[in-house]
Design brief:
By secondary structure, the protein is α/β, with parallel strands linked by helices. It contains 13 helices and 17 strands.
């Protein structure tokens, strides 16, 4: 385990309870030191803040160690390192979590199984099992990241062309079986590498919409319209405070995940033509908080894809080199092996075909 915080290292080691875990205090932003710590290993998993993702990849390149990364942003920057990774004889897999990650793999699988793809639609979100005010939402990761997801424009493909959509627009209701029930879905920026890897392969629409309990978008937009998500500081008496920072600090304890835990809900719809006939591939994943391990559904569905990919590299099941996105690796011949590996952890991705 490598981290810049000794306290975090000790907490993680205590959580694993494994004697073979070795701790190394390293500032991951320092590439030479990180490369030194990675030397003589087969594969590493990067579970770092977004700002530290690229330095970790560059350290892996220097150490010639394969890397599975949870961060999937800026796919062009990562794809540009393909030749360097190939020359180093290693495999880099960016964005190998739940979304991006499993969602991208399902899209890639559907596209491969069709002769002509018309639409690829991703619906995904983490929701609390128990609805609680004020947002009927509880955090399973950093609240600031939750805010940013609903503030930045979303990349989508409409009529085969890449465009920008306002976050929280495109609101619709999606029905799920009980105990989940109806959820609302709205555009968010989560398609990751798909516009790059699926370029020219989807004729009409590609998007990701985040799932929440009905009413979330209206409540969030109310906060936004009140200026409570602005980052420009305002003067309060003799102090300057950014409303965004104040709201995040205020809501973090109020939105802490309760003892009932969370649910991860994903539905991916890929539709088009096969042998001249309309076909729809429906992929679904519904996962729950595990009270025995205390792993949240979000942690399970984010961490297990990365650890499954790393295990497949270590066991020489993946012999590809370079920078490969999940949909490039696991939508084809490795699909069944990857899905089976997830299933051993209790993460079940279902696939149904309909005309």
């Amino acid at each position: 385990l490598i981290d810049g915080s000794e306290k975090q290292l000790e907490a993680a080691a205590a959580l694993t309870g494994a004697e073979r875990v070795q701790l190394k205090k390293v500032n991951v932003s320092e590439i030479p030191a990180t490369a030194k710590a990675l030397e003589n290993h087969q594969v590493a998993i990067s579970a770092l803040p977004h700002s530290m993702s690229l330095p970790a990849i560059k350290a892996a390149l220097e150490a010639k160690v394969s890397l599975v990364d949870l961060v999937g942003e800026a796919p062009d920057e990562r794809a540009a390192l393909h030749e360097a990774a190939t020359e180093a004889g290693i495999l880099i897999i960016p964005g190998c979590g739940v979304a991006p990650g499993i969602s991208n793999i399902c899209v890639g699988r559907g596209v491969q199984l069709l002769d002509e793809t018309h639409n690829a639609l991703i619906y995904v979100g983490g929701i609390p099992k128990e609805k609680t005010p004020p947002l009927n939402y509880q955090t399973v990761y950093l609240l600031e990241s939750v805010f940013h997801l609903c503030l930045r424009p979303a990349v989508v493909i409409q009529a085969g062309k890449q465009v920008s959509a306002e976050a929280l627009s495109g609101l619709e209701t999606v029905e799920f079986p009980e105990p989940i029930g109806p959820l609302e879905a709205f555009y968010t920026d989560g398609v990751g590498s798909l516009p790059l890897t699926m370029a020219g392969k989807i004729k009409n629409n590609l998007f990701e919409k985040t799932l929440r309990y009905v009413g979330y978008a209206e409540r969030f937009n109310f906060l936004k319209q009140c200026g409570l998500l602005d980052k420009k500081p305002v003067k309060v008496d003799d102090n300057y405070v950014a409303p965004f920072d104040f709201l995040a600090r205020l809501l973090t304890p109020r939105l802490k995940l309760g003892p009932q835990g969370d649910i991860l809900v994903m539905r991916v719809v890929v539709e088009g033509l096969k042998a001249g006939r309309r076909q729809q591939h429906l992929f679904e994943l519904i996962d729950y908080f595990d009270p025995q391990t205390r792993y949240t559904a979000m942690a399970r569905t984010t961490g297990f894809p990365a650890s499954s990919a790393a295990r497949m590299i270590a066991q020489n099941q993946l012999t590809e080199k370079g920078v490969r996105f999940p949909e490039q690796l696991f939508a084809g011949k490795h699909y069944e092996g990857f899905i089976s590996e997830l299933l051993t952890k209790g993460v079940a991705v279902t696939h149904k075909l309909s005309d």
